[in-house]
Amino acid sequence: MTTKIYEKAPAKINLLLDVIRKRDDGYHEVEMIMTMVDLADRLEMEELPRDQIILSSQAGFIPLDEKNLAFQAARLIKERYGVTRGVYLHLDKRIPVAAGLAGGSSDAAAALRGLNRLWQLGLSTAELESLGAELGSDVPFCVRGGTAIARGRGERLETIASPPACWVVLAKPPINVSTADVYGRLRANELTRHPSIPRMVEAIRGQSFADVCASLGNVLETVTLNRYPEVRQIKECMVKLGVDGVLMSGSGPTVFGLVSKESKLARIYNGLRGFCKEVYVVRMLT
Ligand SMILES: C[C@](O)(CO)[C@H](O)COP(=O)(O)OP(=O)(O)OC[C@H]1O[C@@H](n2ccc(N)nc2=O)[C@H](O)[C@@H]1O
Ligand SMILES: Nc1ncnc2c1ncn2[C@@H]1O[C@H](COP(=O)(O)OP(=O)(O)OP(=O)(O)O)[C@@H](O)[C@H]1O
């Protein structure tokens, strides 16, 4: 009988995203506060009798070859640790693609965590995070999970307390936004207003939902909102429908609204569905 294991790959949201400067290596020095929501992909991993990586998925719209981040993660850990066994990966895709929710990064992180178990490599979380950094800036956080301040290009992590429990309404307009393009259009040296990390950390430490909502901020928002009016429209619509806090996640285009009262959700969901097909109501993972 072959061994089969599963890993959950949750989506992330950026409660705060600040850019400090553009670096010489083309990346931007960032300061972010990231957390997970309970919208997740599920990655199944099963030993293969031959030395090969095979990936399948029910989703017809993602690459299943070496372009897929879960495939890349399996290849990286296999080659780095000289594993000669193979693996069959099956990805049950639930997180919208190219949404600013780190779906691909979380799949890669799930593959690293899972294959460390399946192949009994005994790697620490820190070792898995540093392998993850070779795959993408969001992967180390996705390996670790929870809530964290991320610095550097996103790979230097400091775990903090979870934000107060609340509902998260996610709305993704039907457009594709390239992360590289959004960072490329940002004029980091011309930013005059920066969201405050200490203020958000204090809001979370004090478990003040109102202060968390008031401290949300993302300097990439202006770039994406100016380029894609539909993202701005979703943000304005969320405000009108009465969400307590609203922000674009990552480089977009997904906008999330934080809501404390369950009784408000139906109206917000129905109002958004009026002009946006992809709307999800999930919980913050605390
Ligand atoms: C927007 C966020 O998702 C917020 O969490 C991340 O900052 C981006 O994370 P990611 O998608 O994992 O990004 P990567 O795959 O590492 O990089 C994609 C591209 O985004 C730009 N990039 C990314 C991260 C960063 N700190 N500075 C950048 O300028 C670079 O042009 C890079 O070529
Ligand atoms: N496992 C995967 N799941 C989804 N897309 C993937 C995966 N692997 C590679 N991709 C490719 O990566 C691109 C970005 O997908 P992804 O869903 O990870 O973006 P994202 O949520 O915007 O990421 P981030 O928030 O980290 O910028 C897509 O165009 C897709 O073709």
TrEMBL record:
<feature type="domain" description="GHMP kinase C-terminal">
    <location>
        <begin position="200"/>
        <end position="276"/>
    </location>
</feature>
<protein>
    <recommendedName>
        <fullName>4-diphosphocytidyl-2-C-methyl-D-erythritol kinase</fullName>
        <ecNumber>2.7.1.148</ecNumber>
    </recommendedName>
</protein>
<comment type="similarity">
    <text>Belongs to the GHMP kinase family. IspE subfamily.</text>
</comment>
<keyword id="KW-0547">Nucleotide-binding</keyword>
<comment type="function">
    <text>Catalyzes the phosphorylation of the position 2 hydroxy group of 4-diphosphocytidyl-2C-methyl-D-erythritol.</text>
</comment>
<feature type="binding site">
    <location>
        <begin position="96"/>
        <end position="106"/>
    </location>
    <ligand>
        <name>ATP</name>
    </ligand>
</feature>
<dbReference type="InterPro" id="IPR014721">
    <property type="entry name" value="Ribsml_uS5_D2-typ_fold_subgr"/>
</dbReference>
<feature type="domain" description="GHMP kinase N-terminal">
    <location>
        <begin position="68"/>
        <end position="146"/>
    </location>
</feature>
<dbReference type="InterPro" id="IPR020568">
    <property type="entry name" value="Ribosomal_Su5_D2-typ_SF"/>
</dbReference>
<dbReference type="InterPro" id="IPR006204">
    <property type="entry name" value="GHMP_kinase_N_dom"/>
</dbReference>
<feature type="active site">
    <location>
        <position position="12"/>
    </location>
</feature>
<dbReference type="GO" id="GO:0005524">
    <property type="term" value="F:ATP binding"/>
</dbReference>
<keyword id="KW-0067">ATP-binding</keyword>
<dbReference type="GO" id="GO:0050515">
    <property type="term" value="F:4-(cytidine 5'-diphospho)-2-C-methyl-D-erythritol kinase activity"/>
</dbReference>
<dbReference type="GO" id="GO:0016114">
    <property type="term" value="P:terpenoid biosynthetic process"/>
</dbReference>
<dbReference type="Pfam" id="PF08544">
    <property type="entry name" value="GHMP_kinases_C"/>
</dbReference>
<keyword id="KW-0414">Isoprene biosynthesis</keyword>
<dbReference type="InterPro" id="IPR036554">
    <property type="entry name" value="GHMP_kinase_C_sf"/>
</dbReference>
<comment type="pathway">
    <text>Isoprenoid biosynthesis; isopentenyl diphosphate biosynthesis via DXP pathway; isopentenyl diphosphate from 1-deoxy-D-xylulose 5-phosphate: step 3/6.</text>
</comment>
<dbReference type="InterPro" id="IPR004424">
    <property type="entry name" value="IspE"/>
</dbReference>
<dbReference type="GO" id="GO:0019288">
    <property type="term" value="P:isopentenyl diphosphate biosynthetic process, methylerythritol 4-phosphate pathway"/>
</dbReference>
<feature type="active site">
    <location>
        <position position="138"/>
    </location>
</feature>
<keyword id="KW-0418">Kinase</keyword>
<keyword id="KW-0808">Transferase</keyword>
<dbReference type="InterPro" id="IPR013750">
    <property type="entry name" value="GHMP_kinase_C_dom"/>
</dbReference>
<dbReference type="Pfam" id="PF00288">
    <property type="entry name" value="GHMP_kinases_N"/>
</dbReference>
